[in-house]
UniProtKB/TrEMBL annotation:
GO terms for biological process: DNA replication. Keywords: DNA-binding. It comes from the Bacteria. The keyword DNA-binding applies. Residues 128-141 have a biased composition (Low complexity). This is Single-stranded DNA-binding protein. GO terms for molecular function: single-stranded DNA binding. Residues 116-158 are annotated as: Disordered. The keyword DNA-binding applies.
């Protein structure tokens, strides 16, 4: 069977939903990837959008469930496929879905701390200190960015 690999960079647009399917767990969420284009005048205009349903199985369930939520900037890698179904009116429909192989926060749009036994992170002497304007507001611990700020501190557990 041929699988179509895909990487999506975007934001989680709903609260991840954790379920049991047989004796396995799955966590599902929807990602929006929005582009924008520069206009001839030098401004920006919205481009195309992609919305995709993401299914996470195995070890991803624990990591995603512990670290990511609605609004989180993410990078999702996996295999994409079309899911076909009938709606309430009996019409045939299809949706784009992805079975994720890797999910993580987009560190270009968030500050994260990795928590993993045996991993201590970079040596503090090797990491440049952020400027005062880059330090996130501790009051924003819920993962929501401060007004006008695109970055947010997100915990990440593995």
């Amino acid at each position: 069977m041929f699988e179509t690999p895909l990487t999506v960079v975007g934001h989680i647009v709903n609260h991840p939903e954790r379920r049991h399917v047989g004796n396995q767990e799955v966590i599902k969420f929807r990602v929006a990837s929005n582009s924008r284009r520069r206009t001839a005048e030098g401004g920006w205009e919205p481009g195309n959008s992609l919305f995709i349903n993401v299914n996470c199985w195995g070890k991803l369930v624990t990591g995603v469930g512990a670290a990511l939520g609605k609004g989180a900037p993410v990078i999702v890698v996996g295999h994409v496929y079309t899911s076909e179904y009938e709606d309430r009116d009996g019409n045939r429909r299809s949706s784009l879905e992805m079975r994720a192989t890797s999910v993580g926060p987009d560190v270009s749009r968030a500050i994260v701390r990795v928590e993993k036994p045996g991993y201590t992170g970079p040596n503090q002497d090797e990491v440049p200190a952020p400027a005062a304007a880059e330090i996130p507001d501790p009051a924003q611990a819920d993962g929501e960015p401060a007004a006008g700020d695109e970055s947010a501190a997100l915990p990440l557990s593995a």
